[in-house]
Specification:
single chain, alpha/beta, Diaminopimelate Epimerase, Chain A, domain 1, 6-stranded mixed β-sheet, 12 strands, 19% strand, globular, binds manganese (II) ion
Length: 323
Amino acid sequence: MYEQLYSRIQQCSTIGVTSHFRPDGDAIGSTLALGLALQAMGKKVYMWNEDGVPARYAFLEGAEQILPLPEEVPADLEMLICVDTGDWKRLGDVSQRLFAEFPLIVNIDHHGTNTRYGHVQVIEPETAACAFVLFNILREWGVELTRPMADALYVGISTDTGSFQYGSTTPAVMHAAGELLAAGVDVADVNRRVYQEVPYTALLMQREVLNNMVVEADGQLAHYSMPGGRKAELGVGLEDTKDLVDVVRVLQGVRAALIFEDLEDGRIRVSLRSKDPAVNVAAIASRFGGGGHAMASGIRMRGTLEDCRAQVLAATRKELGYE
Ligand SMILES: [Mn+2]
């Protein structure tokens, strides 16, 4: 599988790498690590993301190369590689339109709900991170890991495993992390930048969640809903609402945690987390057109906050055995 991709890549001299909108550490880390590796292999590389690089990942060396999508597909582009993106639609509106007819799309991912879009797929469902898949790919290709590549892969693996806390943290994942440290990752510095420098507005947002969370089903289900307009009232931005679900997920006894956010465009964003392997939140998300992982998934659905919340909570109570 890795070899086939390698030979396809060797036939191209200009390659684009992109990932999903609202990128997380794995999306940025995977885009950057693969982009830098392809450059080291002598390729001309475009790195793109529809929403750009979140501030907390901007320190990664080379991250400035990740640019907004161009107006048109560059004439010299021969291959587009999508990383950490389970569904073509998650690339964003611009990418979908731009690359609808593009003839060579590669899909490298680790989501169990991957729709197998594109012309070449390397999908390893339910592995720790796309960056972990890429670590294995680059090693098999014989790419020498530079510190910037190692930093990017480390950030991808660390953020997708909740700092090596989730069940996806296998011995192989720990070995990979060890090799990345050996390649030069300054683990204290990277972790401080990624986890210990939270903007004031993000703490305001967390306080809002703690003040308004709802706990039900004998303490097994916790959720918070953000009405339209609330973000503006609080002065919080897009990045401040990331990982909010972790604020309620940690409550003792909780098996499922959800955040509902009115996106103010007629759609509701739902983040779902499970703390119990018997509770599959990807299955719940799939029912509403969403997807993700068994323990972490997401939905974007049309409707009012009240309607969407009622439907998704009903499905979640059912999954928990409360009807
Ligand atoms: Mn990922």
